[in-house]
Amino acid sequence: MARKSGSHAEITGPRIRRAALSLFARYGYAAVSMRQIAAEVGVQAGALYLYVADKQALLFELMDAHMDSLMAAWEAVPKPNAPADRLRTFTDFHIAHHLERPDDLLLAYWELRSLTPDNHKAIAAKRRAYEAELEAILRAGHAEGVFRVPEARITAMAIIPMLNGCVGWYRSDGRLSVADVQVLYGRLVHGMVAPDPVPAPV
Amino acid sequence: MARKSGSHAEITGPRIRRAALSLFARYGYAAVSMRQIAAEVGVQAGALYLYVADKQALLFELMDAHMDSLMAAWEAVPKPNAPADRLRTFTDFHIAHHLERPDDLLLAYWELRSLTPDNHKAIAAKRRAYEAELEAILRAGHAEGVFRVPEARITAMAIIPMLNGCVGWYRSDGRLSVADVQVLYGRLVHGMVAPDPVPAPV
DNA sequence: TCTTGATATGAACGGTCGTTCAGATAACAC
DNA sequence: GTGTTATCTGAACGACCGTTCATATCAAGA
Fold it and tell me: Are the C-beta atoms of A53 and A104 separated by less than 8 Å?
């Protein structure tokens, strides 16, 4: 046998990427074989190479596309001026974006080590650029005196894994909605950067 | 050739575990071969099976030993009564313990998925027991009115990945000491659970 | 010194890996 | 209806996988 009926490049290509994303996220890059990906798509392993240079390129393209889409989506978000509102906009965005793409987040944070040095460098740079957005908000709030963030970079690197954590426990059919999660984490982050409270009057 | 001079079970066994821990943490369980572990120890692959039933058991024993040592160490810590102090004791402990054992933390949080279902169940249970310690502190503080933690479980699951994050960026020869990290994260966590500040007097 | 048990080698097992490629078939242009 | 091209198969490649085992050597006790 050879070509299958109804086969199309513009269908098979994305299906390969979706299958790879899902399998990589669930079992890890190293634990997933090209044959498993092919089976998920309903195709033989050799067919994958019509669409992907090799396994490493497949991983890189998935991660790179995610970082680009993340950054583009964030840039498209209207941003208020006040640092507190801006911070809440960031956390809301980050949570919503990743709760809709949990597999992308898993890849972005678990599979950096599976990239070749060059690919690693490229993805890490994009990740730093994204984290710098949060850091800039923290610095602005600190400069205006509405935040108390003596270590903006470290605080950003504390906030982000905290936000990411929600992907681990959130269930779309659970008790909480995405908006609930946004409110909960929004309050937590707000507390982290709020200036010391005024002492209670005696 | 056969037995090497100076070989001893009580030396080779731990060396295998140390090498496996280090390699698993760096490259991931699935990406590391028994031959790589053996090479790191300076031994042939077959010799590993004098000390380990199989690769899966090796991973499980590493994770299980870590969870036991973590729990035992926490139980040995003297705990103040006031929830705020108790919370700070927990975050200090968690940070110090894991900054000294970064590989253990990486395994505990990245390789759960590499465990067989039975092994996964055992490790996940121990992890929940540890996280319950933090949750109990939050609940106690909330009950006493010194914390504002309407969702203790979720807050605990927000705090822990945040604390874990420090393992990703901390460098022992860097600008900050472990104590500095403890102070920084201690303040962040304190802000997360602090009740709404008293409004400033007009 | 001789024996015995602990410790390691190194070759081998069947299986799976990522990847390539000649050949076969379906879809499409004319 | 015919020829062309895009798409996929199925077999094959060498390499490496986890694991086993007969064999060899070292360490220690008698």
Answer: no
Within residues 7-26 of protein chain A, the ones with CB less than 7 A from nucleic strand C are 7
**Contact between B27 and A113 using a beta-carbon 8 Å cutoff:** yes
Task: Tell me what the mean pLDDT of segment B63-73 comes to.
Answer: 98
Looking at chain B, the whole-number percentage of residues with pLDDT higher than 90 is 91
- Please give the single-letter amino acid code of residue B49: Y
Chain A, window 8-37: residues with a beta carbon less than 8 angstroms from a chain B beta carbon: 26-31
- Taking the C-alpha atoms of residue A103 and residue A45, their distance in angstroms, rounded to an integer, is 23
What six digits make up the tokens of B17?
């575990």
Cβ–Cβ pairs < 8 A, chains A and B = 88
| Contact between B194 and A199 using a beta-carbon 8 Å cutoff | no
Is there a contact between B195 and B149 (Cβ–Cβ < 8 Å)?
no
Question: Are B155 and B83 within 8 A, CB to CB?
Answer: no
Residues B165, A157: C-beta atoms closer than 8 Å: yes
**B33, B14, B15: which is closest to B24 by C-alpha?**
B33
**φ/ψ of residue B149, rounded to 5:** -135, 80
Neighbouring residues of B118: CB distance < 8 A, sequence distance ≥ 6:
none
Q: At what angle do helices A152-164 and A178-193 cross, to 10 degrees?
A: 160
Question: What whole-number distance in Å separates Cα of residue A30 and Cα of residue A114?
Answer: 8
Low-confidence stretches of chain A (pLDDT beneath 50): none
Q: Is the pLDDT of residue B200 over 90?
A: no
Is residue A17 within 8 A of residue A58, CB to CB? The reply is yes
Answer for the pair A181, A175: CB distance below 8 angstroms, yes or no.
Answer: no
By C-alpha distance, which of A122, A68, A123, A126 is closest to A97? A68
Is pTM, for the whole model, over 0.85? yes
Q: Which element (helix H / strand E) includes B92?
A: helix B83-99
Q: What is the pLDDT of residues B137-184, one digit of tens each?
A: 999 999 999 999 999 999 999 999 999 999 999 999 999 999 999 999
How many Å apart are A3 CA and C20 C1'? Answer: 18
Residue B113, both tokens: 């998925």
